[in-house]
Amino acid sequence: MVRKKESSLLLENRRAHYEYFLSDFLTAGLVLTGTEIKSLRRRDASISDAYVYVRDGEAYVANMHIAPYKEGNIFNVDHLRDRKLLLNKKEIGKLGARLKEGGYTCVPTKCFLHHGRAKLEIALAKGKKLYDKRASIKERDLARRVKEAKKSHGQSEE
């Protein structure tokens, strides 16, 4: 019997790290149909514009685009439908309270398979100002220059 890999990264939302200050990461399961999971395994999806909201004690992810599966015919569903997240009551309560607080939103940062099940890593996000984004770019460029300098001088990375 072939064993499934521990986990494999399918999608990553790099823009979220640039646009927001991220905190309070959670991992949630996704409720998907058969054709959606097949399309997701082919990496025909996007989480760059997605966000999470809480309604009636349940968490949902909106604007997560999963392309229709080519061989799915009548079993395909709307590619932008809201998908339910599997979190426990305590996690949903905390998340809902922070979202109502104001100034916060919840965005997905990664989508991956864990033992064959689709999971979504979500984080609470607070928007960055323009000067914060410039600082992020400056730090990234500085780190890149340091890495290149070490490489050119023959030092190993630690």
Overview of the structural elements:
There is one protein chain. The chain has 158 residues and is an alpha+beta fold. It contains four helices and nine strands, in the order E-H-E-H-E-E-E-E-E-H-E-E-H. It has a seven-stranded antiparallel β-sheet with strand order 1-8-9-2-7-5-4. Strand 4 and strand 5 form a beta hairpin. The longest helix is centred in the C-terminal third of the chain and has 23 residues, at 130-152. The chain is globular and about 60 Å long. The model has no long low-confidence stretch (mean pLDDT 87).
Which descriptors would you attach to this protein?
9 strands; globular; 36% strand; 4 helices; single chain; alpha+beta
Strand content: 35-45%
List the secondary-structure elements in sequence, H or E.
EHEHEEEEEHEEH
Chain-averaged pLDDT: 87
Detail the poorly predicted runs: none
Helix content: 25-40%
Amino- and carboxy-terminal Cα gap: 39 Å
Task: Give a topology summary.
Blueprint: E1 7-12, H1 14-19, E2 20-30, H2 34-41, E3 45-46, E4 51-55, E5 58-62, E6 65-66, E7 83-86, H3 89-101, E8 104-114, E9 117-127, H4 130-152
Antiparallel strand pairs: 1-8, 2-7, 2-9, 3-6, 4-5, 5-7, 8-9
Summarize the structure.
The protein is of the alpha+beta class and 158 residues long.
